[in-house]
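new request in #modeling-help
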Amino acid sequence: MRSKQLVYKVDNLSIDNNDLMVNETVFHNANGYIGIRSNFEEGYPEGYDTIRGSYINGFYDIAEMKQAEKLYGLVEDKQTMLNIADTQSIFLKINGIRFNMFEGTVLSSERWLDMEQGITGRSIVWRAPNGNEVEIVIKRMTSFYQLSLFTIEYAVKALNFSGTLEFESLHIGEVSNYSNSNDPRIARDSARYLMAGRAFLEEEASYLVSHTVRSGLSVCTGVKHLLSKPGSLKTKIEGHSAKAAIQTSIEEKETVTLTKYTVFSDSLRKKDYSLRKKDYSLRKKDYSLRKKDYSLRKKDYSLREKDDSLREKDCLKGAMEEMEKALKLSLPTLYHYQKEYLKEYWDRCFLEIEGDDDLTAAVNYNMYQLIQSVGKDEYCNIAAKGLSGEGYEGHYFWDTEMYIQPFFNLTEPEITKNLISFRYRTLEKARENARILGHKKGALYPWRTIMGTECSGYYPSGSAGYHINGDIAHAVTAYYLSTKDIEFIAEKGAEILFETARLWMDVGNYYRGSFRINCVTGPDEYTCMVNNNYYTNVCAQHNLNWAVKFYHLLKEEKKLSPVVEKIHLAEEEIKEFDQAAKCMYLPYDEKLKINPQDDSFLQKKVWDLEHTPKEEFPLLLHYHPLHLYRYQVCKQADTVLAHFIFEDAQSLETIRNSFDYYEKITTHDSSLSTCIFSIVASKLGLTEKAYEYFGDSAKLDLFNTHKNTKDGIHTANMGGNYMAIVYGFAGLRIKEDGIHFAPSIPKQWREYRFKINYEDSQLFVEINSMGSKFSLLKGSPKKVFIRGKRYELKDTLVV
Amino acid sequence: MRSKQLVYKVDNLSIDNNDLMVNETVFHNANGYIGIRSNFEEGYPEGYDTIRGSYINGFYDIAEMKQAEKLYGLVEDKQTMLNIADTQSIFLKINGIRFNMFEGTVLSSERWLDMEQGITGRSIVWRAPNGNEVEIVIKRMTSFYQLSLFTIEYAVKALNFSGTLEFESLHIGEVSNYSNSNDPRIARDSARYLMAGRAFLEEEASYLVSHTVRSGLSVCTGVKHLLSKPGSLKTKIEGHSAKAAIQTSIEEKETVTLTKYTVFSDSLRKKDYSLRKKDYSLRKKDYSLRKKDYSLRKKDYSLREKDDSLREKDCLKGAMEEMEKALKLSLPTLYHYQKEYLKEYWDRCFLEIEGDDDLTAAVNYNMYQLIQSVGKDEYCNIAAKGLSGEGYEGHYFWDTEMYIQPFFNLTEPEITKNLISFRYRTLEKARENARILGHKKGALYPWRTIMGTECSGYYPSGSAGYHINGDIAHAVTAYYLSTKDIEFIAEKGAEILFETARLWMDVGNYYRGSFRINCVTGPDEYTCMVNNNYYTNVCAQHNLNWAVKFYHLLKEEKKLSPVVEKIHLAEEEIKEFDQAAKCMYLPYDEKLKINPQDDSFLQKKVWDLEHTPKEEFPLLLHYHPLHLYRYQVCKQADTVLAHFIFEDAQSLETIRNSFDYYEKITTHDSSLSTCIFSIVASKLGLTEKAYEYFGDSAKLDLFNTHKNTKDGIHTANMGGNYMAIVYGFAGLRIKEDGIHFAPSIPKQWREYRFKINYEDSQLFVEINSMGSKFSLLKGSPKKVFIRGKRYELKDTLVV
């Protein structure tokens, strides 16, 4: 039915190095736990650049990040997502001739991502230099049914010959992370993080255990091969790698298939929690020993070895169990479960644009990447690049809360709950972070992190982005408004809001009657360390207000005591929150009738974007930060974002003026920008402009418009792209008084329709140029506001 | 006559490690070209920390300074002053027993600095474990007569025995720089910079040539020994070191003296300039080769070798010539020349406080350190720590212009000329620096440097300190006002002023009628990246005004064309300078009637200094910069400095209010602060307060009040300390209309007197509580303003 828009296909594969690297990202497989880039199994010619990576969400080591000058509190260690192992490599020889796409003749080739099946594929018809012709079809899957499992199904059909078929399939434990010393957006230093642990063979399956150097984690990968017909299979361990040599014969027109199973098992998630705690205390001791005395290092090392061996056992056992589990089912059965999982997913997040199959396909692609990328447990979150590459080193940012959670709130609130649980799990680290930054109370979430500590090396556009606190508080509130799940607020959400609210009280101060927040950085990274960033202040106000609201709500529900007692929250503090929210200073310029981005933004020179040569974008790669900060120029939506998220804080006229003003000085050098401009343009009735911004956002990765898709997809933009339709064109807002719509439709579309969850119900929305139709698919009747007018949705509503 | 105040002496030497390290600094020898820390010749016990360094002013290598996140334009290489060689080590054995102060019995000991003789000394009476008693007197000198020369005169007197005397004297070429990874004020990484070049023996003199790794410089040290009586002397080379074994006999009551000469010769200053240029072009080529292709490195290496060998020859020759020169004169003759040089110096900078010998001694100590530290040629300047230690890595800051040049303007204007010439010589690098920071025109001097490029790793309190441009411009103007040397302005000074003025035009912008300067850092490093820092703006205004004045002055004198043609300066630009200066925005708070430090300073929370525990100072070692920036708290004089330097910009009432306001929130964590507070307190008639601040400033290094004297002296404070008397108590100002005084005297003093140069004249000023006496020692009669009233000084004037 919708399969056309659920397949993304490329014919006549380019073998240009840059295209290959982009496609490694675009066709990667992931399931929220593991991610594998789509490298050619047989590799590229020598000298080609490649990022040949396999990743586990939340699995990290600690890397040194020295500051040029050491100042108190500057971060000098960061977590970094690790390349775990290479289990992609498979070399094929037909009649002794090695297949690769850079020699012989490629008669036809294609690559696809089937988002309905949850499988990527590559098929090639190839003529070897000796004239033998083969059809090769390779399918890959990271299973949503069994998160630890990655499969490669490698089918070879002899088109015009008979003879021998040899596979050499590798399982490489000695891998490094990718680096580029010139791009601030990816890691600077190439590094081998994993140390070799045990290598083990059982029933021709290879298992390699590796240990991190500093984070005290272990991982085991297991690889097993199945051949569709009899043949010989010999596996041997060499160093910290395993090599399987597989041989069989092939007849003309016959198809022979090799299936390669990889399973992952990591100590971060190992079942025996008590063991891990012991591990941890060992390591802490180990660390203090190390600090104390260098000569004790050896002793420390022996502790580590003991520690490693405990984890080794555990991971190895885990991997073997996972392998056993995977092999119990046939590959077709696994494919079937994959499709079932996705069928439900596509149903829940159903979205269709009639009249624009390409855009529907792009939007589907984006939604698919979100489910591929998002963590499925509380040990992880969703990285800026998902699990598709090493850009931003697997770090989690505010992107999660402001760009991605809105999508899951509407389609799979359980995932939002997970994401918030991750923040709750790391709240203690946020408290520690607040202390490092000098705050006596409250919690300050890190700008970028994997396990909860700050990993930002350049604090002016990192740790100074205090708005992340308000963003997380906002996400908790948004989850509550979508679900009314007061239990979860009592259990986790309220504590987050109280602690973030406390922080604002410590950061801000009263001056001439109003509450002000100095020396922070708003969303726009081209203007740093300013006073009263409008977005930050309005975000803090919301945070403070909702801390007060949750306090009273929980009190009414008699669920307040546990959290209040836990964090010693005084009633007096709630009054202070309320007072500060009421007195919050929101800068407004009387002359321009806009909200200035911050106190001094409008005093600065306006950047001459019109006369800036194209090759100077993104500006951050061509101008010193100090220079950028001195101009009115925005990397991304900042005040405009505030006008979307906190729209009720200003009149429509002010929002319109602001939009016009900031639009002229925004470069959209950040991928977090065009989607927001699209939404606010929709709000202002500028549907055609909204459509343009939406198109820019939709195409970002598939067309590599930011020229860095090779480093990974842009997950925030993907969520934002969805929002540009549902919050943008359809004008959805979920507020305290109920659910709102303000439908519009670009003239290029005939109709668009989508399903969303809201509280206990599921709604179906159909919008075309004649009107809108709202249907209650399940759940109880709902109040619905259409352009501010209240309706009752019982069954169907046509407006 | 004044010898008491010209000797600083310590009895009963402490052998506490920390005291030893402080004394390495306090008793160091330097002459502006070389500096040698005062380590014990025989060393300390194992495990003792020490900074055993010898330095050459301006001689550097380039060290990597990686940024935690790479952003465009951030500095990733810095110059660092090198530890050149160890020629201090001399081990003495009497009758086979090795002398050291940590074994046997020290019967008496003292250490002194004789500032009249220009010599430091240590004398010890020591009883060996076997009962042998010796008196050891060691004198050290870095010659002002022959800048390349360092001498150690090591005299041993047998008090109660006869026997053998053995010296082992080392010349070590393999040395490292000191490091401390926890203190932002000194280098983080210990490093060997110098590579061993040729080692050479001639007539028992050893010569060691070393090459820098990246800066393309070479240095040769030569060491030669003379014994006061016959004995054996054998020198041998081991690796890149030389060891001299000297043996003789000693009779009871006899004194035997070993004299050790060290000479330094470096390629930075080598005579054959054409050779150096060739060298340089070789290196440039070499560098581009290296960038292009790694495989070419070998070739590149051979180029370097050729390059190194050219410099090697040259340096070795230089060192041998210097040694020959040194040996032509006897040591007493060298001592005599040293004293003669200092006699003239002390005469020119004569300053005496009657009634306070200790403070006179401290002030003399400070003045002595200034002549020890200041560069004597245009290849160097005066480092923040002089040549006394490795703090701030030998870098030159704005300290030179604002704290040290005022002293030399009044006492030895030729040195000021040298210091300005250094800035002129590096003007091209300042232009390059401006481009890196995004400015299309003008020059921006680096915040810290050795050879002219920016070495600041943390730009918010480094490169963002744009006021350094105005400071340098002010120093040029101050030199002109002191000397009326219009030739020098035509030759060098005006070009500096025009280029710095151009930069302000590019940095600033008009907003609502006034000219504003956004996103810079003023002198106070606890508040960074602000808009309209009062000091910066008033400094820029002065810079622009004087660019206009010099333009017209040179035009009148018909000296304008060369510079105007060289830098393509248009008359239109001069009008723009004038206009911007007239419209310069100088923030003023109507309510407090003070100049706010910057646009938003007064909105911030006031730091509670009263309740900050003592151990939390300096705050920079205990608080994250972002936290500091969010408070009203000053590391040092900022607006108060402006009120001294640019006093005519505000009314006395405003200055008084500002002083009161900022005094309460200033920690004086910077050594640049108390002297300025002293001067402004004097101006405001707060003589007792001024006296207190003056005392704090005077004692800084001798009493190690900042707890980091081990890393070197604080030269800026030393200049500032002088200013606190002459500009502070005596109220000296040199303005366009003439020379001004506003005498005051602390009640602790009976009288103070000093000599200064002004234009073609020398003045002698005597001030006591009854009145002041001004005498014209030489030169033409002068207009003198005493507390604003004009007098004619022909011979003597009593007011």
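bot summary: Chain A touches chain B through 54 residues (CB under 8 Å).
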